[in-house]
Amino acid sequence: MNLTGAEILTEVLLEQGVDTIFGYPGGAVLNIYDTLYDYQDRITHILTAHEQGASHAADGYARATGKTGVVLATSGPGATNLVTGIATAYMDSIPMVAITGNVSTSLLGRDSFQEIYITGITMPITKHNFLVRDVEELADTIRSAFRIANSGRKGPVLIDIPKDITAAKCEFVKKEQILIKKQSKKNRDQIEKVSEIINEAKRPVIYFGGGVSLGDASKELKQFINKSGIPAVHTMMGAGVLCHDDIHNLGLIGMHGKSSTNNVISDADVVIAIGARFSDRVALNPKYFAQKATIIQLDIDQSEINKNVYVDYGVVGDVKDILNDLYPRIKENQQSEWMKKIQVWQDKDYKPVDSDTVLKPHQIIRILCEMSEKNTVYVTDVGQHQMWAAQYLEHLEPRCFITSGGLGTMGFGYGAAIGAKFGVMNEKRVIHITGDGSFHMNLNEACTAKTYELPIITIIMNNSVLGMVRQWQTSFYKKKYSHTDPQRKTDFMKVAEGFGVKGYRASNPKEFEAVLKEALEQKGPVWIECLIDKDEKVLPMIPAGGTIDDMIMD
Ligand SMILES: Cc1ncc(C[n+]2csc(CCOP(=O)(O)OP(=O)(O)O)c2C)c(N)n1
């Protein structure tokens, strides 16, 4: 077949199993959009309000489904608007292919209208990027991009395509989608050694992160825990991998983790890190992290071994494979003495107090969990509301807690929720939890949710301040609230109306229950503004660089 570059692009997307892409048109991608018009029956293109929203949507789609998210933008400002979304995906190892148009090859390097050196800009935030200069190379370049985004540690790849390449023609031959081979460097001796250490441990703990869900290994982790009886703590990105009511699931660790989980790490004799990268939000002070323990790290990425924390044994490979190899070698044990000791710490954990008259953040989350289906996908923005969600959401399943962990991107939520909704459509409900600051950054995507009548419920935890930063000012900057109390006059109910979205407001638990009940029955997007006190804190908290001894409990 003799096809144009634009047709080749769409054909290869189909070859790769892509049926939904997110994007925004412009001059440099006009040939591609012209072709997409003819492929509407096979590729659904979702038009967002802003390219940043499109990039978060592609990311949210990938997180909710496990497939590769695809985003398309024009050259210049279209391409630069993708940068935050690409960086967000990169930090959380999300497979994404970002396609940008560029000026024609003859205009490259001449400061042409809407020209930008996007491959240079995205070099540090992509696994790899390509500038296609010959239409003959286009098909294989796109195939390579999908392969790279999905092999080993996943992540975003960018393909920059000059306009003349999308118009040029060449012979196109279809290929089968190549299945990605897993990389496993682990060897039998290592597995034997590591299993011996685990079997001899008296106070072992599993510390797992988002790599378990990315590696599709939550079933294997559960099996391993059920047999070994080893308790587990998790990072924010690991939320949902284990059931919240599994007695071995001790909960969140790190800066806003429980005091009990942090105590467990400090006292453990063996720590088994699985798909977790010892980030500074967890190993706040790497020198004192799990000081008494032999540390074993299982990870797909060799460069994570010994990166942040020195580990005694690093096993590199697919975590699902490693857990399967370890399973038959692990002794049955219920670790009852160790669990009794942990129970004593758990009894002293921070417990928030309920109120009937005002809305408390933990009550909002509890009511959400009680009233929505068990498999609901929760998508958050960034700030205190994100941490309250991570601390109090129950019944999470893998791929049901979508949040910007590594980059901490305010403005991630609405776009990601829209992407997630397209991924899970009729199977699962999507609830977006945001703060008034984060929501101001991306509420323009309400038009996207409305256009496609997506039944996404947005919970705006409105404390009228940039809560998380203000909390740091309270604790570490003598309450000098510099620019965190913006005194905005936004009337979210009127804004909702302007977008054609249904808006509700609640200021106590009864009101919230009543409006949530109505919201759950709506067919399109809904916002619920929850009024909360600006002095609410996320507790407990270990200050950056601190240890369990520095924990703030009130
Ligand atoms: C794009 C971006 N800018 C700035 C920050 C720094 N930051 C982290 S949390 C936060 C406040 C968030 O406020 P809000 O969304 O209202 O949530 P709250 O903490 O009040 O729940 C800020 C400014 C960020 N994470 N991302």
Question: In brief, what are we looking at here?
Answer:
With 554 residues, the protein is an alpha/beta fold. The protein contains 22 helices and 20 strands.
Estimate percent helicity.
25-40%
Largest sheet, in brief, is: 6 strands, parallel
- Determine the strand fraction and express it as a percent band: 15-25%
CA-based shape: globular
Rounded Rg: 24 Å
Low-confidence runs: none
How far apart are the first and last residues' alpha carbons, in Å?
68 Å
> Major sheet: order of its strands?
3-2-4-5-7-6
What's the total number of strands?
Answer: 20
Bound molecules: thiamine diphosphate
| Continuous helix count | 22
Average of the residue pLDDT scores: 96
Structural class: alpha/beta
Describe the protein's architecture and organization.
It is a single chain. This protein is an alpha/beta fold and 554 residues long. The strands form 4 sheets. Strands 3-2-4-5-7-6 form a 6-stranded parallel beta sheet, with helices on both faces. The chain has a 6-stranded parallel beta sheet with strand order 11-10-9-12-13-14, with helices on both faces. The chain has a 6-stranded parallel beta sheet with strand order 16-15-17-18-20-19, with helices on both faces. Helix 22 (509-520) links the parallel strand 19 and strand 20 (526-531). Helix 15 packs parallel to helix 22 (509-520). It is globular and about 70 Å long. 52% of the residues are buried. The model has no long low-confidence stretch (mean pLDDT 96). Bound molecules: thiamine diphosphate. The site of thiamine diphosphate (TPP) has 20 residues, from helix 16, helix 18 and helix 20. Thiamine diphosphate (TPP) binds next to helix 16, helix 18 and helix 20.
